[in-house]
Amino acid sequence: MRLRTLLAVAALVLGACAHDEPFQPQDTTTDRPFAPGTPTRLTFNPGADLHPAWLPDGSALIYAWQQLDQPDRDRCLGIMAATGGTRTRTICNPDAAALDSADLFDSPSPSDDGQLVYLRASGLPGAKVPAHPGVFLGPLADPLAATELFTLPHPLASGLIIGGISTARWIDSDHFLFVGQSTNYAQQDLHCPLDTLVTGLAIVEMRLAGAGMSADIVPSTDGASSAALTAGRDTLYYTLNGDSRVYRLALATGVVSVAHDFGALGVARDVTVLGARLVAVVGGELEYVPAGPLGPLQVDGGGTLVSVDLSSGEEAPLPVSQPVLFHHPEFAPGVAPVRLVAEAVPVDTTTSICTWHHLASKVGDLYLYESP
Q: Which of 150, 222, 281, 312 fits as disulfide partner to 303, beta carbons 3.0 to 4.6 Å?
């Protein structure tokens, strides 16, 4: 079609609308996923989408996402409906003075009474190590009004020094647990860029009230890689680096037992529990070094999602329609239907001396199972 014809058609369309209601842009928001599948892919961000956590009522999830199309490549928080679709809210640093810095918001965990604990850091774009990292607590309605609980790295009363936190689990409004982590920056080769290597050290109990804020290790959890609480907040499930077992700790008595052993399937991590259902990441692309110049190190490229019926011990890998490796599955709170969200990274057969795990891409998306 010639340009003259196109202009004529446009003029006819505009003329037909001249005396009608003003033009309104089409509503492109949705609370449905853009591409169904097994599991359903929820995000299509060019950057990484990480560390999903559910709001307490199960109506939506909050997660970290990277603005890869922006010069500073900020990592922000986003909120999305439980069924997927358009991100309904974005939480970033709005300060114009921060446009020349890279801001990081990560590992969000909302509480029942509307609080949010999360990681926050900033630094120059392209910096090898983030500057001013800390753990912040504030209202979910306005996370930017948060106050810093402590800076990172942070020494505990036991002498353990943590460089990061993961999977914070609220017991009540003044009390939560999290996995304290080591954070190392290392190269595979002198010609490679620095890579961030995160390994769980222990589960830490954080109290915000009483005689003052305190944090220290939960007994029997040295080397913990993940943590999950039951709905009654009285039982802790956790995994240990290099271990195929999932452990159960009764918080009232301190009694520890083995909830399940995946045995030959491989190392278990990233546990989540709903009633008598347990799901964990098992096997896959993982390397565990119990001792070395960087200390204990578990480099995790992701694995298979395996569901366990705790009443019978029966295992069942969750189905996938494409080759992916999973991280950080999270059951939604006890609402119907049962929902499970997880990070997934595509399997990448292109090997490189500059990657610590060779089969997994570093840019993942969020995926949803309904009634898994």
A: 281
Residue 339's SS3 state is strand
pLDDT cut 90: percent of the chain above it: 64
Which amino acid is it at 17? C
> Mind listing the pLDDT tens digit for each residue in 44-92?
988 889 999 999 999 999 999 988 766 667 889 999 999 998 999 999 9
Are 33 and 39 in contact, with CB atoms under 8 Å apart?
A: no
Q: Are 178 and 204 in contact (CB under 8 A)?
A: yes
User: What total of structural domains would you count in the chain?
Assistant: 1
Could you list the residue range(s) of the whole structural domain that residue 229 is in?
29-44+141-370
Q: How far apart are the first and last CA of the chain?
A: 51
CATH number assigned to the domain comprising residue 233: 2.120.10
DSSP for residue 347? B
Nearest to 217 by CA among 248, 249, 180: 180
Per the domain annotation, does 288 fall within a domain?
yes
**What is the tens place of the pLDDT at every residue in 24-42?**
444 445 655 555 667 999 9
